[in-house]
């Protein structure tokens, strides 16, 4: 991968190149000051209250704090990857401010969200107290990042976007160990990467990620249409630079007021948000409308090397995840056409997913000793089972040798 694009000195606080000493913090400091939404087992949006209160100013201020929560990683206490760029606009499409990271700035994959809160000055805005309405996260170099959540606040308005929305709308995704709190779920995470043809940027319209009863009722009339076929509302991009210009709503969307919260509810005219044209998602700077056949996106097979093709949908075939958590069913990633991640064993579901080929197997037990995955031996067992000497009969697929493993336990 190439070097990070040249950039002016950032106006936001830069994270240190090395992680801070571990200072005890509440587990993700869960609060309830933002109302967003996740998706249930039936892919239906439902509201969730959560916030990281240290990332919310005590009053309305002249900057925007953006807190990024990472999801999956080989080790959740290691480096997630390069720090991404963050770009903000107001509802008129005027740039508010940007975070330009140092070339060697790393986003550490741990629960310490204070290392991942970027305080972005409103350097581009005439009105310094403006509230950002569009947010774009961009990655141009380094290892891929899997985003679980992004909290945005200027003290006046606070929202959280979750990776579930990206997964629902077709982004590459994976499970994440990182829960929002002890009794709260773990959002799915979506990949930003500079290779493999995956998305390098994503953006969303801030007022549209409120999980109010009225707004979700509007979405549920046709979730795919009103969430995913509205490019200004949410979109992934495969090459849009940090100085690129996203599509904006013209005119500015109007919302009903949610009766329970006073926050933005459903669109007054829902069809105004739906795309009337197709956008070139491969654009670098200015996405242009495309009339006629959709422009094809770069596919994984076109950009993969020979070795990466052997990995299939798995970034590291030598790593195994064993999870006890609810919502981490192996069948979720195996049955998805957009999942990308490591082989996984779900002890709760009693199944194993070979992510190289997205093939699902039962776990071996006293009642099933053939054509299954043996957790203790970390091997697929074929029709002959395991003989008296403990030798495994393979299924006729390449044998995997796991050199590392992660155990995601239930609870905190």
UniProtKB/TrEMBL annotation:
Location of region: Disordered: 1-22, 282-316
Start-end of Low complexity biased regions: 297-307
Name of the protein described by the UniProt record: Uncharacterized protein
Originating species: Colletotrichum spinosum
């Amino acid at each position: 991968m190439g070097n990070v694009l040249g950039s002016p000195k950032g106006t936001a606080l830069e994270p240190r190149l090395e992680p801070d000493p571990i200072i005890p913090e509440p587990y993700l400091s869960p609060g309830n000051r933002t109302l967003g939404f996740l998706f249930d087992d039936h892919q239906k949006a439902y509201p969730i209250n959560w916030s990281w209160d240290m990332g919310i100013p005590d009053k309305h201020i002249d900057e925007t704090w953006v807190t990024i929560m990472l999801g999956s990683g080989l080790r959740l206490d290691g480096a997630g990857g390069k720090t991404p760029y963050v770009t903000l606009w107001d509802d008129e499409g005027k740039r508010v401010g940007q975070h330009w990271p140092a070339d060697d700035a790393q986003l550490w994959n741990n629960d310490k969200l204070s290392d991942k809160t970027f305080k972005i000055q409103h350097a581009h805005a005439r009105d310094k107290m403006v509230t950002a309405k569009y947010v774009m996260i961009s990655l141009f170099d380094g290892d891929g990042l899997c985003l679980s959540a992004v909290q945005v606040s200027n003290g006046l308005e606070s929202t959280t976007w979750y990776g579930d929305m990206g997964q629902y709308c077709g982004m590459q995704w994976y499970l994440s160990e990182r829960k929002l709190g002890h009794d709260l779920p773990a959002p799915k995470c979506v990949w930003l990467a500079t290779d493999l043809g995956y998305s390098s940027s994503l953006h969303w319209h801030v007022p549209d990620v409120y999980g109010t009863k009225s707004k979700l009722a509007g979405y549920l009339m046709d979730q795919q249409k009103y969430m995913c076929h509205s490019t200004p509302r949410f979109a992934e991009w495969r090459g849009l630079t940090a100085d690129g210009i996203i599509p904006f709503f013209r005119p500015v969307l109007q919302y009903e007021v949610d009766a329970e919260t006073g926050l933005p509810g459903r669109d007054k005219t829902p069809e105004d948000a739906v795309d009337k044209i197709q956008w070139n998602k491969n654009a670098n700077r200015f996405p242009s409308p495309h009339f006629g056949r959709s422009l094809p996106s770069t596919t994984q097979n076109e950009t993969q090397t020979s070795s990466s093709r052997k990995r299939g949908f798995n970034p590291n075939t030598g790593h195994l995840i064993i999870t006890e958590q609810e919502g981490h069913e192996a069948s979720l990633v195996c049955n998805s056409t957009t999942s990308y991640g490591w082989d996984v064993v779900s002890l709760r579901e009693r199944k194993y997913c070979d992510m190289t080929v997205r093939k699902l197997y039962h776990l071996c037990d006293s009642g099933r000793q053939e054509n299954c995955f043996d957790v203790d031996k970390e091997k697929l067992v074929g029709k002959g089972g395991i003989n008296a000497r403990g030798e495994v009969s393979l299924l006729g697929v390449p044998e995997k040798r796991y050199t590392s493993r992660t155990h995601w336990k239930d609870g905190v």
